[in-house]
Amino acid sequence: MFPRIFSKFITSFTKKPTSRIMAPLLHEVDTPTKEATFGMACFWAPDCLFGATPGVIRTKVGYTGGSKGTPSYHNLSDHTEAIHIEYDPKEIDYSTLLKLFWENHNPSARMKLQYTSMIWYHDNEQKELAESTLKEQENKHKLPIVTKIAPASTFYDAEDYHQKYRLQGHPWLCEAIGMKSGAKLKNSHLAARLNGYVIGCGGVNQFNAEVGKLGLDEKTADYVRKLVIKNEGNGLTC
Description:
Elements: H1 2-14, E1 34-40, H2 44-51, E2 56-64, E3 80-87, H3 94-103, E4 117-121, H4 124-140, E5 148-151, E6 156-157, H5 165-168, H6 171-176, H7 182-185, H8 189-197, H9 203-214, H10 218-231
Parallel strand pairs: 4-5
Antiparallel strand pairs: 1-3, 1-4, 2-3, 2-6
Helix pairs in contact: 2-8, 3-4, 9-10
C-alpha cells in the first residue's frame, strides 16, 4: 500500500505544469459589418479613438469628399482627411459612433478643407441620425457649427505610414504581432485595437479584459499594459 501511495505522490510532484493555451493573434474577425466615415480635423487621433472602441472591427485613414482622383497627403486637392470605420452593428450602433464623433473634436472650428468637420453617410438611416444630432449640437454651441453632412463617396486610402500611426511608433510591438507593413495594418483588427491602447484609449480595465481574446502573449501584453496605464486620460492628439 505504501509504495503505491508514494508512487502517486512522486508522479504528482514531478508532473510538469500545463502551459496556458494561447488564442491566435486576432488579426481577422469574420462578421458582417457596416461602414461609417468621419472628418474630425485630422485622422491619427480618430484612428486611435475608434480602433479601441468595442464593436469596431477595422479602421483605416484616408482622403474623401472631393471630385479629383488619386489624392495624396501632399496633393490633397479638394479632399478631406477622414477616418473610415467598419463596425459590428450587433455590438455598437451608429448613434454611439456619432456621439464619439461630436465629443472628440471641435465642430465649430473653422479649418481649411483638409481638416474640416464632416459626416459622410452610407445610407438613409445614417443621414437622418447625422442631421438629427447636428441640430442638437447647434443648440449646445455658442459658435456656428461648421460640420457638413454628405453622401459617402470614393475613399482613397492614405499612405502606409499614416495607417495605425501611433502603433507604428512602437517597432518592437509591430514585429511582435507580425505587422511590419502599413498595408497589412489597415485590415488587422488587432492592430486597430493596439493603435488605440498604446496611447491610453479604452483604458487598462478594457485592455485586461481583451488580452486573452486578442491572443497576446504575456510579454507583449505587459508591454502594451504599461503604455495604457502611462497614457490613459491624457487625451487625443494628432
